[in-house]
Amino acid sequence: MAPNFDQGPYPHDVQPASTLWTEDEYTKVWEHFLDKFAAIQSRFPAPIDRFEEEGRAKMQKIVMRMIERRAPITLVLPAFPFKSPNSTDKVLGKLPDRAEELSMERLERFCREVEEAYPPGCKMVIFSDGRVFNDLLGVSLGDLRAFENEMQAMVKEAGHTHIYFDSMDNYVKNVDDPIPEILERFNVLHMDFDTRIKTEAAIRNTYCSFCKFLERDLAQQWVGMSRSAMKRSCGKIAKQMMHRNVGFSALVDDSYPDALRISIHQYDNAGPKFGIHLIPQKSGKPRTPWHSVVCEDLDSTPHT
């Protein structure tokens, strides 16, 4: 099923590539893109970060395929699900606020800057992952829809023309309960995460990160519960999240096979996914607007 781009067709979709470019022209476009991407990219310190050694060449290959076709350089960002359910000490409410607004401005500015050197343009597809986890975190479908609608209204009101929205709903038959269909389609149900958590360091780290995240996001749910009971509950939910995330990631890859995959998570940048900052951070660690509150320093510098 085709994605639902509410903004209508992008004005620069594939242009004829009949006019040959020189190698120098291709290189200039790529280097311009790389320079602009560096401004939003999240990086680990060396030697953990592998962008220069591995990721740069992989990114160049993906971007150059689009440039050679004179297609818009398309980036896909799975993100902006809903506000954290913890409105006590993480967020101010259920709807997008200044944090999301700053993020949209940042992404739109990036696309416009890329377009300065590449007339076919650049577009950012935000693929909402809200339906992947909302029931596990106790977020109602109504609250999720309200968040999505407000995000789209925010982009439209701001006049952003390079940001598009997509979601799981556009790719399933049963919109009311999409998860079983996605897990079956991408053969995820057979995966044994209990064993993988014990034997694979990367999977174990992801599991521990999810558990830590759940402790804070569902803090109100743990009131009056023993720490051991809380940890058991977090572990159970974390494994469900990992199963679903594998299926969702496969869906995004399947739906956008030619796009550059970016992420709000911090990676070693070896590819094929590359981490970005949605809001500049003094610490250098990425923070997501739906888990944070924006503050401004005396010099008006925003951060979370």
| Strand order across the largest sheet | 3-2-1-4-5
Order of helices and strands: HHEHEHHEHHHHEEEE
Total helical elements: 9
- The structure class reads alpha/beta
Quick check: average pLDDT? 89
Characterize the biggest β-sheet.
5 strands, parallel
First and last CA, distance: 37 Å
- Percent of residues in helical segments? 40-55%
- Spans of at least 5 consecutive residues whose pLDDT stays below 50 are 4-9
Shape: globular
Total individual domains? 1
Pfam families: DIT1_PvcA (PF05141)
Organism: Phytophthora nicotianae CJ01A1
InterPro entries: Isocyanide_synthase_DIT1
Protein name: Pyoverdine biosynthesis
Essential attributes:
Isocyanide_synthase_DIT1; 304 residues; alpha/beta; 5-stranded parallel beta sheet; globular; Pyoverdine biosynthesis
Describe the structure in brief.
This protein has 304 residues and is α/β, with parallel strands linked by helices. The protein has 9 helices and 7 strands, in the order H-H-E-H-E-H-H-E-H-H-H-H-E-E-E-E. The protein has one domain (23-303).
What are the SSEs and their pairings?
Layout: H1 23-38, H2 51-68, E1 73-78, H3 98-115, E2 122-128, H4 130-133, H5 141-158, E3 163-167, H6 179-185, H7 193-199, H8 201-217, H9 227-255, E4 260-263, E5 273-275, E6 295-296, E7 302-303
Parallel strand pairs: 1-2, 1-4, 2-3, 4-5
Antiparallel strand pairs: 6-7
Helix pairs in contact: 3-5, 6-9, 7-8, 8-9
